[in-house]
Design brief:
about 60% helix; two-stranded parallel sheet; about 300 residues; mainly alpha; disordered N terminus; two-stranded antiparallel ribbon
């Protein structure tokens, strides 16, 4: 029983000490903070404690970026909020971009057409240098197989044959395909024989623009260069034996797949005549290509 009384007294004393410590702790906490009146100022006249955290700042807008709800310069807020006007502005911008793209496309197409028609040539201010075997091979493939012009020119010629109905093949797309294939085969044959002959003779295969001035001298140069070319010296002119020999041989070979009524000599002769006319026209276009481009607005 004495043990129970002792334990009860100990518990009572512990509770009493805990209450005293709690009361004193509250007093310390109140003493560490300055008392404030209802207006938020300290009773001792001191300024309220400053917060260590900096006030939140709003980031500025990006340069040149307008807020969605703000009008552009010279435009009222009511107008900028009008969806009809916004759609109209966007349409005008789209039309301007489309027009610019169309003009640029036309210019590129004209440059492309000029390059396809003119082919390989030496400029007015460039000196003729004897071609190597590798350069001759590259020019041959460009003129015969690897460029759009090698096929586009024959497609145009086949359209003329289709309109004339020659050779005597069927009409429609099938007949056009036969006429195009015939012209293409004749051209490849003629160009291959001409390239081999010019390589053997050492003749120049490129057209060189005239270093003269004036329409007359330049036109004369373009026509004569269809019949004369330079030898290895690049200064002495020789007849275009290989070029016209290839044209004659191409006409002969093409007769083998044309209707049986065709004459070998007649087709070969027309091949030579075609080279004389077409070659002179091609040289003329190449010679005056710069002036033709300027008339079309191409730089």
């Amino acid at each position: 029983m004495r043990l129970g009384i002792a334990l009860g007294g100990g518990v009572y004393c512990g509770l009493l000490m805990a209450c005293v410590l709690a009361v004193r702790g509250v007093g310390w906490a109140q003493a560490s903070e300055p008392a404030q009146n209802q207006s938020g100022q300290s009773q001792a006249g001191e300024a309220p404690p400053q917060s260590t955290q900096a006030p939140e700042q709003k980031l500025p807008d990006a340069p040149g970026e307008a807020k969605p709800d703000e009008p552009k310069p010279g435009e009222s807020k009511k107008e900028s909020a009008n969806p009809v006007l916004q759609v109209g502005d966007k349409t005008k911008q789209a039309v301007g971009l489309t027009k610019g793209a169309a003009v640029s496309g036309v210019m590129k197409a004209r440059d492309w057409e000029s390059g396809v028609i003119a082919g390989v040539y030496v400029g007015k201010n460039r000196k003729l240098v004897t071609l190597t075997a590798e350069q001759r091979k590259e020019i041959y493939f460009r003129q015969t197989l690897t460029t759009p012009g090698a096929y586009g020119k024959r497609m145009f010629g086949a359209l003329i044959d289709q309109a004339r109905g020659v050779p005597a093949w069927q009409g429609g797309i099938g007949g056009y395909g036969e006429r195009w294939a015939s012209r293409q085969g004749q051209f490849i044959t003629a160009n291959t024989i001409a390239a081999l002959g010019n390589a053997k003779l050492g003749y120049e295969v490129r057209y060189d623009k005239c270093k003269c001035e004036g329409f007359g001298p330049r036109a004369k140069h373009a026509i004569l260069r269809n019949f004369l070319t330079y030898n290895r010296t690049e200064t002495e002119l020789r007849p275009q034996w290989a070029l016209y020999g290839g044209a004659f041989a191409g006409g002969l070979v093409a007769t083998t797949w044309k209707p049986s009524s065709q004459s070998y000599l007649v087709n070969a002769g027309w091949g030579v005549v075609g080279q004389a006319a077409y070659g002179a026209l091609l040289n003329f276009v190449t010679e005056f290509g710069t002036e033709i481009n300027r008339k079309q607005g191409v730089k």
